[in-house]
Amino acid sequence: MRRLKTAAAASAALLLLAGCAPGTATSLDAIEDQGTIAIGTEGTYRPFSFHEEGVGELTGYDVEIAEAVAGKLGVDARFGEAPWDALFAGLNAGRFAMVANQVSITPERVDSYEFSDPYTVSPGVVVVPKGDTSITSFADLAGKTTAQSLSSNWYVLAQENGASVEAVEGWAQSVSLLEQGRVDATINDRLTFLDYLLQTPDAPIQVAAETDDPALMAFAFAKGNTELRDAVNAALKELRADGTLAEISNKYFGEDVSQ
After folding, report:
1. Would you say 207 and 125 are in contact if contact means Cβ atoms under 8 Å apart?
2. Distance between CA 88 and CA 137 in Å, rounded?
């Protein structure tokens, strides 16, 4: 789900981050003493972390959940914005205490970072025209045409299931071809589908099937910062129990994607 970022952009962002206060608190005790938690996010990743109209206040699904977590910790959330690669460089350098930016939990990342419990669960889905019953599983894609970005893992999944793939630049083009009847289906993550449906409620599309192994997204912390991770997990547990996670999720996706 992540985009490739250039080294030049990451380096430029690090120069900007160098202006951050050198005394950024990263341990739980220091964060509580300071009264703020420094959180890294992109700020350009709608609907998770973005500025309304490009100039408004920072907002989004991840931003609101991070703010709710900070509230449970009894501190204020202070966000620092940077490109994807620079977020982790900032985390490693102690500029951020955690990263809130739809970071998927992978074996490679677990080796390098601590992760909270997931606050987003998103399977891959096959999207078809509304009312279509010819595709009810990934196996049914055999002999069908799907629209996929050639650089995505969904392209590989479509090919593995025998589909003929129409190359596109992204979701917007995929769903346009689907609605025009020029392709039979497209594969993407469920979050993308739900966001589109929330923005375009009358879209004539539906989910026909979904993967058994959903992507799990969580807050990331520097390796070894287990005390802060555990405190954030306790906060997430409270937010799940009191309905806050479901409320924020429904605001941005129309259903609860937090579990």
Report:
1. yes
2. 37
